[in-house]
Each structure stands twice: as C-alpha cells, then as structure tokens.
C-alpha cells in the first residue's frame, strides 16, 4: 500500500506536533474547558449552507454550455450546482412559480391548465437518473481538443429527480383516439418545441419539479421540465409550459436537430426518441491529473446507459490487451450513473488505461478503431468524417483511453 | 382527482393568453427567430449554480443547532446546504485541507499520519446513509412545543457519503492484540473525543470526505469525518484529526453524553454504540401546512432505521383505527431515508393522520401512549418523566400524529 510507514524519527518529528495538540484536546474532553463552548448561535450562521472556502470546483464554460467537473465528483449524485448546462448561450428564464402554468391541450377531451400547486397534488415519483447531452464526447471534445474528462465527458450529470408521471396528467386530460404524439414547449426565449411519441410519454415520462431534494435549479428548467429517462438531453424540454397532443409530430427545428433527431414510424403513428448508448469513463486518473509516483491507486469512474442498467465494467491497464472486471458500487440503477472502482498498482512505466461497459441489454462499448472500421471510415479522413457520422447516429460512445506517462502525467489518448 | 376541469369559457379566458404566447413560440421554433438566440455566453454565467430567487427554503435555527426543512424536501437526498447542524453554537473550524492530517496511533504496530491526498489514494466506498441527532423528536420537540415537521423531526438528513473504510487504515497501521476500542477526536474547539468499539470500526465505519458528490460541507466535518452507519449522530466525529487505538474506552464526557452514551461490555473488551431505532414521519401534510380543500392528496414522508432497511410503512387516516400499507420508493437502502407515498381522499372532516414503520429486524414504531404504558409512565407526570426516559433509552421513536382540522390546517397531535 502507499501511505507513509513512518520511521521512528519521522513520527516523532511530525507526530509530536499533532500529538501535542491532541493531548490538549483530551484534557478539554475530560471536562475542564467544556464550559467555554459558547451557547449562543454563531454570528455567521448560514441557514442555507455553503462550501468550504478551500473547495472551488466549478463547471467549465465552453462554446455550447457548461460542463460538469467529473474529475472532482464522488459517488453517483451530481451536486445541483455542478449539473451540466447546455444553454447555447442564453440565461435561464426568471420564472415566478406562482405565475407559471402548464397547459395541456390538442387532441384531449378536457384541455387543462395546471398551477404548480395543482401539479404537486398529483401522485409523484422520485428517480435517480442521468441526463446527457448528445454532443457529449462528440463535437466539442473533437473540435476543441479536449484534454480533461470534464471536457470529454462533462455533459452528463446524475440527479434524484422528483415529479408527476406525465401519464397521470394525460389521463386527466383524456387523450383522444388517433393521437400518437405530443409537442412539449418551454417558456424560454425562442421556445423549444419537442415532439415526443405518446408511447414514451405514457410509459415513464415525468413532469419534474424536484432535483436532489430541492426545486429544480433555474438552468435545469425551474419550475418544471420534461424528463424522458434514457433519452438524449435535448429532448427533455425545460421550463415546460405547454403540451399539445397531436396525431403526428410537428417536425420543427428541434425535432430534426443533430443528435436529438426523432425517428418517426413509416405510417407516422408513433416513433422513437434517440436514447443514449452505453458509455463509461475513468474519472481518476484522467486527463490533466498527475500521479505522484508508482504504487497503489484506485481507478474509479462512471458508467451509464440510456437503455437500462449497467451490468459490467471492465478495465484495461495495458493498452487494451487484457481486461478485468471492475467493482460496481451499489445502488446500480437503470438510466443512472453507476460508480465503478478498480484496484491498480502502477509500476511507473508508460501505460494506457481505459474502461468499457456493458448494459443489461447486452450492448458494449468498442474502441474508436473498431467503431471506425465498422462504419467504413478511412483513418486518414478520420476526424471530419467521424464528426458527421457520430452526429447522425449518436454513436460516439467509444472507449476513452488515458495515457499515463513515466512522469505520472495523464493525457487524452483517444486520437 | 383534483385538477381544474375547465369549462369552455374558463379555458378560453385563461387558456387564450397562454396559447397566444405559445403560438408565438411555435413561430420561433419553426426557424424565424432562432437566429436571435445569442451565441455569446451570458454575462451572469454561474459556474457554480444557485437556486432560483423564488426558492428560499432554509434550515431552522433552534437552541441546539439548525434543522432540515423536511416539509420542503423531495426524494431521499438532503441537499448538502440543508443538512441539519448540531453544533451547539460554535462555528465549524476553518480547516485548510492541505494542512490537515489524520494521526492513527496507540495500540498499533505502525503509527501513521495521513494527508488528505494520501487518504484519497485508498480504496473508497460511497453509501447513501442518514445521520440523525439522538435528540431528534426528543428534548427540543417536547420543550419548545414543536409545531412543524422541521421542528419535530428536522435533526435527520440523508446524503451520499464517500470515504475510505476505516478498517483499511487500521490494517495499514496494524492493530495490536488486546485492543478493543479507539478514540476518535475532532479538530474543533473543545475537541470531541468519542470512544468507538473496534468491532464497529472494522465493520462498516468510514472516514468520509465526500457528501453528495462534493467534499464535505464545513458544518458536516470538512475535510474528513467519522461515519458510523446507523449510530446516533453525535458519535460520528467531525473534523477528524486523530484516532487512538486502546484496550478500553476513554469514558470522557462525550462517551457519557445523554443520547450518545456508549455501552461497554462487562469485561470492557468491546461494547456497542447506540443505534437509532426505526422512525417515520409524514412530511406532507404536516404541522403548519394547510390543505386548500377536500379532495385528493398524496400523503408522503420518510422512514429510516439505524438497524437496517425499512420493510414496511403503514398509514392511518382515521386516528389509528385502521392502517394501510404505503408504497415505498426505490431504492430502499439500509440505514438510509426511505420515501413513502400513500394516496388519500380527504373528505373535509377533522382527521388524525399518522405513519408507522417496521424495519427488516422486525421492529415497529408504537404510539406514545403504548410506549408510555410499556415504560410505566403516569399520564399526568408525563412530559418531564418522558423526557428523562427518552434520553436514557434513546427511545423516542413514537408514531407522529398530525391533526387536520375542518379548515384544512394541520397541527401536531402528539400531545
């Protein structure tokens, strides 16, 4: 193991100072100084807490939004303040929840308008779910030469969401025969209007108002947003204000948008939203970090799939020659981040480490080389062709390799 | 159900305004105004996010600390900024993690000092666990005439904690034969020194540095704290700086403190820390809230046990005459808050609603009357005797009843 086995002199030198303080503390613990603890509340009492001034992890601002600092996260919950934002440059609308309404109309028996208070009276559900921008690991990572895991994979986050099942609201309104789609519209500038197949809406869609125990953050759609488990981030309409039930999709710009494009059945009666394929990434050690020396490290990271639960994560620490199972941290939930861990002794030589996951649908990640070959992309024209291809198919779920140099510095080994 | 079934005139009146805005939005969604979305990042970009200005739920300051606003929470995760604080009036120490060290010494083969960087190199674990002050639902609730669930039950919170198993650190140090206890000491003013049986320390104790994905908040022990799953809050030493391995407990003031008092085996070779008994509480509707009228409501709340997982929650809406099972929200985790839900139609009459839970050890909650009878407390001298009793036995896990008046106002019906 790696911690200091202190020699006697070292211990005496370093330990004595701490032990000295500690001895004082023991005296106080035995009762002598206990009365000096003030009974009055502290002057700077913070009834809504803040971080230590020594903690300063923040989102990374790029051209399309703000990325989650995955390298700093622990467990599976993303703090709401660090949830990725894909706002394309506009501020979230400043919505007064007392004034906000959700309208459900179109092919329904009873058009309805709900206040927030009314929505919260419905039966509710909480689920730990990831949200991921389809551009994650794609365009930005390629074009901007991403070097850190925040830049390559930071457009995914995982929260405990709470809301009312959309199916309950639709049943309340009474969906008419012949309806197969709805359009969900947000209240932001240049409102997003997203077509959603009725089948998905009636299955597991949520009109969410809670995120990690609190109301949604403004950037995630306060006071309500659509939540379509497993689907690409863009289709989850934020600042939701209107749902129109239709016999066909609207096919507006958002329905055709790269990455989030819907698939319509040949007869128009239904279709599919794009789901995120299985992905995993090692968050430690990852690009931009530095190992202080050879010895023991715990490799850790996240895996997730829009099609179900993660069943397996394998790790290679020899450039892909051999793979061993990582340990998956409970709880392992469908369409949620899953934390994996793998013990590793680094021998100090240059190595490439990487993870690959398999979901409970049996789908696994492949290397970029394998994916390229499968899609007939020439290695030479690689980068630009790949770009188009990945956008068309949402498929950039390639294995992410990190190179550890002899000096311990970690860099992106994808290209 | 309860939402508005809008008549045609009402819909035209209210709906038209929203539909009008919406129609404009559809025009923009079809492409005409899309270019007006600015490409530049917004001026007030918040790389560490904040709440909406319309969200203002905070902790409640009482004589002993700050209580979590359970009535406002959704799901099972308590936002770190709203985690209860039981600081007895002093500010958390302002610790620089680069300077902080953990010393392990006493009956060990190799006394060790760990920096934060070294601790984080060890294999780690994340667990969703509650922490609860043993005084929760006890002294304060009784003496101060608590009326809201924040006041009666707000000294419990649930987080995803991450840290290194203490067993790994102790194995690294090499615990010597004849050792049965350790003392864990914090770095705060008047340091808390808490005796912990070695058996618990080697079982599931964590030296935690992560809370809900981030480093611990200062009030919860930044940069490291002890985490003893299921045990009373007070024994989980915050701002941990020293662990001394011993053959017997120190029996300082903290080991004897009401509510947190340790139990020592007759031969001194081991013992038990107090564990929290099963508890549940309805958070909606709860004291201080007001139902706008008869009709459908979802009763919801939290259940937890320091001895294991919650197996069952039952709800009575008729003053305890009949009980029906509530639905438990997944994931149901040991020693974690579990969210329950129960559909309810309020007929507009005065009623008393309450929940009782059973954990997977088979232990259930009882009413205050049942508990009093079992312990031979006279109803007359009730309050003061009960106080002593509850403190001595940590047993105030009585069923919490709420009274709903004909006007819909909800009040504490415990006494």
Written description of the protein model:
The structure is a homodimer of 415-residue chains. Chain A is an alpha+beta fold and 415 residues long. Chain A folds into two domains: 60-272, Oxidoreductase, molybdopterin-binding domain (Sulfite Oxidase, Chain A, domain 2), CATH 3.90.420; 279-412, Sandwich (Immunoglobulin-like), CATH 2.60.40.650. Chain A has nine helices and 23 strands. Chain A has helices spanning 8-29, 116-119, 139-143, 149-153, 166-173, 198-203, 253-256, 368-374, 382-393, and strands at residues 60-61, 66-67, 101-106, 112-115, 125-132, 156-165, 181-186, 193-197, 206-211, 214-215, 225-227, 240-246, 263-264, 271-272, 279-284, 295-304, 310-316, 324-325, 327-328, 338-346, 351-359, 401-404, 410-412. In chain A, a hairpin with a 7-residue loop joins strand 17 (310-316) and strand 18. Chain A is globular and about 70 Å long. Chain A starts with 7 loop residues before the first helix and ends with a strand. At the A-B interface, helix 1, strand 1, strand 3, strand 4 and strand 5 of A face helix 1, strand 1, strand 3, strand 4 and strand 5 of B.
């Amino acid at each position: 193991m790696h911690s200091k086995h202190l020699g006697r002199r070292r211990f005496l030198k370093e330990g004595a100072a701490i032990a000295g303080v500690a001895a004082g503390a023991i005296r106080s613990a035995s009762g002598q100084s206990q009365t000096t603890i003030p009974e009055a509340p502290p002057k700077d009492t913070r009834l809504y807490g803040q971080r230590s001034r020594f903690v300063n992890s923040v989102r990374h601002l790029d051209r399309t939004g703000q990325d989650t600092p995955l390298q700093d996260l622990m467990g599976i919950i993303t703090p709401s303040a660090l949830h990725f934002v894909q706002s394309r440059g506009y501020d979230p609308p400043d919505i007064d929840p007392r004034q906000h309404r959700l309208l459900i109309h179109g092919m329904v028996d009873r058009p309805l308008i709900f206040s927030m208070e009314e929505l919260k009276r419905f039966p509710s559900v909480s689920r730990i779910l990831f949200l991921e921008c389809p551009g994650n690991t794609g365009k930005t990572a390629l074009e901007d030469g991403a070097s850190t895991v925040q830049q390559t994979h930071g457009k995914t986050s995982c929260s405990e969401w709470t809301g009312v099942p959309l199916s309950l609201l639709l049943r309340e309104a009474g969906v008419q025969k012949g309806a197969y789609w709805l359009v969900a519209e947000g209240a932001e500038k240049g409102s997003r209007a997203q077509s959603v197949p009725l089948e998905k809406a009636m299955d597991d869609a949520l009109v969410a108002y809670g995120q990690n125990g609190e109301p949604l953050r403004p950037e995630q759609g306060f006071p309500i947003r659509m939540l379509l488990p497993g689907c690409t981030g863009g289709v989850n309409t934020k600042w939701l204000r209107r749902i129109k039930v239709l016999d066909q999709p609207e096919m507006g710009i958002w329905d055709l948008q790269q990455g989030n494009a819907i698939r319509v059945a040949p007869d128009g009666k239904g279709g599919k939203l794009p789901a995120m394929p299985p992905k995993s990434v090692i968050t430690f050690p990852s690009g931009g970090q530095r190992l202080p020396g050879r010895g023991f490290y715990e490799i850790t990271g996240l895996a997730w799939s829009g099609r179900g639960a993660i069943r397996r994560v394998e790790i290679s620490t020899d450039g892909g020659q051999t793979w061993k199972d990582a340990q998956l941290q409970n709880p392992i939930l469908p369409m949620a981040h899953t934390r994996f861990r793998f013990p590793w002794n680094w021998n100090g030589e240059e190595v490439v480490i990487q993870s690959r996951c398999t979901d409970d649908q049996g789908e696994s990640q492949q290397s970029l080389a394998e994916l390229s070959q499968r899609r007939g992309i020439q290695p030479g024209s690689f980068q630009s062709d790949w770009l188009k291809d990945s956008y068309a198919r949402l498929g950039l779920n390639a294995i992410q390799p990190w190179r550890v140099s002899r000096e311990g510095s970690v860099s992106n080994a994808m290209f």
